[in-house]
Automatic annotation (TrEMBL):
Pfam families for the chain: CN_hydrolase
Source organism per UniProt: Fusibacter tunisiensis
InterPro entries referenced in this protein's UniProt entry, alphabetically: C-N_Hydrolase, C-N_Hydrolase_sf, Nit1/2_C-N_Hydrolase, UPF0012_CS
SUPFAM superfamilies for the chain: Carbon-nitrogen hydrolase
The protein's name: Amidohydrolase
Highest taxon, organism lineage: Bacteria
Segments traversing the membrane: none
UniProt key word Hydrolase: yes
Amino acid sequence: MHKEFRLALIQMKVMETKEASVDRAVLNVARVSEKGAEVVVLPEMFNCPYETHLFSDYAEEEGGYTWQKLSEAAERNKVYLIGGSIPEREEDRLYNTSYIFDPKGKCIGKHRKIHMLDIDIVNGQYFRESDALSAGETPTIVETEFGKIGVAICYDIRFPELSRYMVSKGAGVLIFPAAFNMTTGPAHWELLLRSRAVDNQVYTVGCAPARDYDLGYISYGHSMVVNPWGDVIGELNEDEGYLVGQIDLEAEQTIRDQLPLLKHLKKEKYTL
Ligand SMILES: NC(=O)CCC(=O)C(=O)O
């Protein structure tokens, strides 16, 4: 297993058409792979404005247009591609789904967002994801040449048990395609990423769309990589761009050896 690798986050604008968003994503995957990225992450709902009334129009079945383009991009650029998320249709249901591809273009995993963003904050963000989407059922951990990677989507980060579960199953990196908003983003985004990183002594990564004031739901941006000590080692602002960070799993192990939090856990005393 390779202990070090370069991971890229693509913070892109979501375009009006699905095709334009997918083209933009694919172009950026090529760009970051030229910079040496071996694992590439896209944002939540990168091919569809994050608005419940649009999810059905943009939705695809597994293996559809976006899936194909991501698979080709992973293979052409020889990268692991954590394909953000898109609206997935299965029979009469829609899900917020991340497809994950290996450098041969094979789909090695899929995460359906488990926790639905149903919030109503006074003088702030209102959103009812469950008006349009169904919730996923299972945590997602994929096997790569860089070890196990846990993938969950945005609001899933607020549930520490899910991150702890993925790490307890061996995930050395947690990746969250996400789209925090202008109410909760400034308040909680960095705090949550750093908390999950410190709680679990794990690289924790969040990748968001770029901010676009013309859309109904405005993404906070600030895609970020946090190391297992809780330091932010890379962060974008609100604009379009990409970030390439170095992941060092030996360093992660050193922290776990020196401060053996995960070994000290006494689950039997406080299991929920
Ligand atoms: N897309 C999301 O799930 C956003 C989550 C969010 O903004 C939060 O505060 O949690």
